[in-house]
Structures are given as structure tokens and as C-alpha cells.
Amino acid sequence: MSTSQVVVIDHRAAELQAAFCEYVPRVFRTVDFRRWCAWGEWTDEYRTFGVMDDGRVVANASVSRMHVLVEGREVVAYQLGAVGCVPERRGQGLSRVVMEAALEFCGDAPVLLFANKKVLEFYPRFGFAPREQHEFGVSVSVEPAGVLAPEVDLSEARAREELVALAADGVAVTERFGARRHGHIATWYAAANFARPLRKLRDDAWVFAGVEDGVLHIEDLYAREVFDLRPHLSRLVDQPVKEVRFGFTPERWWPGADVVGEDTEADLFVRNLKLPTGPDRFPVMART
Ligand SMILES: CC(C)(COP(=O)(O)OP(=O)(O)OC[C@H]1O[C@@H](n2cnc3c(N)ncnc32)[C@H](O)[C@@H]1OP(=O)(O)O)[C@@H](O)C(=O)NCCC(=O)NCCS
Q1: Residue whose CB lies within 8 A of the most ligand 1 atoms, among 114, 122, 270, for a mutation test
Q2: Residue 153 pLDDT > 80
Q3: Cβ atoms within 10 A of the Cβ of 248, count?
Q4: Which residues contact 220 (CB under 8 A, 6 or more apart)?
Q5: What pLDDT is recorded for position 3?
Q6: Is beta strand 205-212 parallel, antiparallel or unpaired with respect to 198-202?
Q7: 100 CA to middle of ligand 1, Å?
Q8: Maximum C-alpha span of the chain
Q9: Are strands 215-223 and 241-246 parallel, antiparallel or unpaired?
Q10: Ligand 1 pocket, CB under 6 A
Q11: pLDDT digits (tens, 9 = 90+) for 230-258
Q12: Taking Cα atoms as reference points, which of 172, 134, 175 lies closest to residue 268?
């Protein structure tokens, strides 16, 4: 089979999107794109490359067009996701076909992806190299204010529009290795119920954050300007915490935060993408 037999599904192809949505849980049991599609979040920045059999997608590689920041420089890059083949068709070269079609579309542009532990030997066959990721945190005692910052409900179209606008016009959460305009990826996490609560610290500053095992996790921040987070932390916790962890490199939001270790859950692979040496964390809510 050649890449010419690959079906491309984009934001205009509602019927084929349904076939993609039906494919996903056959390969990734807990992952679901249906609500995200119903919310109208599939834009022209997302397309999938699939092999279809009898109207069903049997192998797939998805491509998100990204605005990636590397040391302050914005580059157009692509991120792969949902790469897989249904169990009964594995070992027939179908994933190679969709991977090659997706990479042909990406051309010479930088490409990144987050893999899972079972396929670490798969991506190097396509020119990808592993790149470590780190976790950042800070020891700080925070007592709850008694009233949490108001939660934003992303099932409301208006709220999603505002989030997408903040992600587009606001300051990037990190400029070391991060992304801008990834609002439609963040809404995917909310649609799939994988996101922590989204709270409004200010009208123009929204944050995905939540407490787990006594640690406040600040996953992502969408704001028009950088400000001191410390006075706001008490409105993000409902119990005392002694530690804050960041879902991104916090050089802007908490200069001097510690590298608390390697992020062993993140198996980042890159291709045509030169990254600085030194620790960083690609924002968790910009990953596909
Ligand atoms: C990994 C996976 C995508 C491979 O799909 P497949 O259709 O069986 O792969 P192909 O038959 O097209 O194989 C393509 C190449 O990768 C190799 N390969 C296949 N599975 C591999 C694995 N798990 N690890 C390393 N190499 C692998 C094949 O030997 C083949 O090599 P070659 O073409 O260089 O000779 C498939 O097992 C899968 O869907 N797994 C579950 C979902 C998943 O984990 N996806 C990755 C998300 S990050």
C-alpha cells in the first residue's frame, strides 16, 4: 500500500471525523474525541492521515499545526498524535504508511510527539530522537483562602472562545520550549475530562490547577501579562499545601523554581527540531 491510498480527514469532513472518533477508542481505550468534535473545536490546524477499510479507520497518524516557541523564537512546527493501528491489523505495515504520509505533509518543518512506553523503539525508525523532559516545582506553604477562584465551564462555547483568544493573544506560559495558540488542544483535555479545573484568577488570567496529594499542580496559564502568582495561590487550594508543581517551564511565572527531577512520564521525540540544552518542560496542555 502506498501513501496515495491514505485518507486525509480535516475540519470540513464531518462524516469522516465520525470514523476517526470511532477508531480512537479501539486503539486507546480511555481516549475520546467525540465531545471535542461536537464542541466544534476541530479546526484547520488539525488533520488526520488514515488507512480506511470498509468505511472504518484502521490505522492513523494525526497532525496538529503548532506555533512552537524555542528560546523566544516562534516556529511553525507539527505535533503528531493518535498514532496507531487497530489490534487485528498490526504488523502489516499500515502504521508505516500513515506515518510516512503525515511526515510528507510536515516536510522539513520541526515535528514533535509524546509517545508511550511501549513504542519507544518505533519512532526512531522515522527519524525521531528522544529528548528528556523535566519537572519543576517550588516548596511554599499555602493556606486556603476559604473561597476558590471562580471556575470556568468549558462546555460553554463562549468560554472556549475566550480561552482560545487568551491562548492566541496572551503571553506564552514559557518561551524556553513551549507553544502559543494551543487553545484548541487545551479544550480537548477538558472535553475528554482529563483537565484539572480551569479557574479565573483575574478576568484576563485563567489557570488550569488543582490539588493532589497535598501538592498544588498549576498545569497551564493563559494571561495577557505576567504577574506575581503568590498572592493568588490561596484561591487555588481547598486544603493546606506545601509544594507547587508546574506543567511547564516556569521561568516567567516563578523564576528560580527548582528542577525537581526528570519527567519520566513524558517520552518526547523530536525531528528537525534543535532544542537548547538544559531542563525544560513542554506545556502539558499543549501536548496531543
Ligand atoms: C506501535 C504501532 C502503532 C505499530 O503499528 P503497526 O501497524 O503494527 O506497525 P507497522 O506494521 O506499520 O510497522 C512499521 C515499522 O515499525 C516496526 N514496529 C512495529 N511496532 C513496533 C514497536 N512496538 N516498537 C518498535 N518498532 C515497531 C515494524 O517492525 C516496522 O518496521 P520497518 O517498517 O522499519 O521494517 C501499533 O502497535 C499500535 O497501534 N500500538 C498501540 C497504540 C500506540 O501505542 N501508539 C503509539 C502512541 S505514541
Answers
A1: 122
A2: yes
A3: 26
A4: 173, 186, 207, 208, 247, 248, 283, 284, 285, 286
A5: 66
A6: antiparallel
A7: 13
A8: 61
A9: parallel
A10: 27, 59, 83-85, 90-96, 115-116, 118-119, 121-122, 125
A11: 999 999 999 999 999 999 999 999 999 99
A12: 134
The residue behind cell 488550569 is 208
| Amino acid letter for position 245 | R
**SS3 per-residue string spanning 77-146:** EEEEEEEEECHHHCCCCHHHHHHHHHHHHHCCCCEEEEECHHHCCCHHHHCCEEECCEEEEEEEEECCCC
Task: Pick from 3, 30, 64, 95 the residue to mutate for probing ligand 1's pocket: most ligand atoms within 8 Å of its CB.
Answer: 95
Average confidence score pLDDT of the chain: 97
| Residue 42: all three cell numbers together | 476541530
pLDDT digits (tens, 9 = 90+) for 131-149: 999 999 999 999 999 999 9
Three-class DSSP category at 192: coil
Query: What do you get for the CA distance between the two ends of the chain, in Å?
Result: 27
Task: Kindly give the distance from the C-alpha atom of residue 49 to the centroid of ligand 1, in angstroms, as a whole number.
Answer: 16
For residue 39 the three cell numbers come to 464542541
Range 13-36 average pLDDT: 97
